[in-house]
Write the structure tokens for this entry.
Amino acid sequence: MQLTNNTILITGGATGIGLSLAAAFLREGNTVIVCGRRESALRQAKETYPELHTRVADLTSTDDRRSLAEWLAEAHPNLNILVNNAGIQRQFMVKQTGVADAFIQENEIEINLTAPIHLTLLLISRLLKQPEAAVINVSSGLGYVPLAIMPVYCATKAALQSFSISLRQQLAGTPVQVFDVVPPIVDTELDQGARKARGQTDMGIEPDEVAKATLKGLKANAYAINVGRVKALRIGSRLAPALFLKIMNKRVQK
Ligand SMILES: NC(=O)c1ccc[n+]([C@@H]2O[C@H](COP(=O)([O-])OP(=O)(O)OC[C@H]3O[C@@H](n4cnc5c(N)ncnc54)[C@H](OP(=O)(O)O)[C@@H]3O)[C@@H](O)[C@H]2O)c1
């Protein structure tokens, strides 16, 4: 797809992969809107990239998702690309006490899965009216092979990948293309506390590398954009699923 003169919403675009995507899209001559919960993070992003448009929204809230869609219709009627990037990652063992309450308090399904689906459904009629449009879902290599210590996170990413496939099937022949960006480990704020606590030394690639691979994939209309080592993970998980599950989980087994 063409990568200039688009109007793009990136959820969770004030930090990490989302911010790198925002910067890359700005460089290509697009209008970019980013949203997130923290006003301070949005302000900081705008200080770095003054052309950015920002909007506070907690995407775990149905009302916030609806009002974001209404605001976009007014303020950015030409919106033609939705990037579902916002997400959280939680590590927990199911045998720990208190996990049931913790899961409800910080529900990964709501932000990682319900929000992208609901936002897509809220915006799809407008995207379909554009000459060219896209939904870009940011999933994870952990959607191909789960890390057992993050059981819900991995499940949401596998489900998001499945949703992208169905969406692409349904929208074939329309102006809306559907992409799935599948990053490996990336050095961002994502669950930093748990990464440090488990002594993770490999912090992964830079978010700018994900942005670079994404734009390259979009230009080439490569619908599943497997980034870096995820390419090998994808093939390995199909050829030898049990082996790759074992390898992936070996270093982090509790
Ligand atoms: N880092 C990795 O290793 C990695 C690997 C594969 C895939 N990914 C995926 O990449 C995406 C971006 O993550 P990242 O690594 O760039 O981490 P990040 O820097 O923590 O970015 C996540 C963004 O999501 C926003 N967010 C979280 N909860 C939200 C909510 N309820 N409503 C609105 N925004 C919310 C955060 O902003 P606020 O806190 O201000 O709301 C933040 O800007 C995620 O979907 C993640 O699963 C990351």
Summary: The two ends are 44 Å apart (CA to CA). The beta strands are 7-11, 31-36, 53-56, 81-84, 133-138, 176-182, 224-226. The first strand starts at residue 7 and ends at 11.
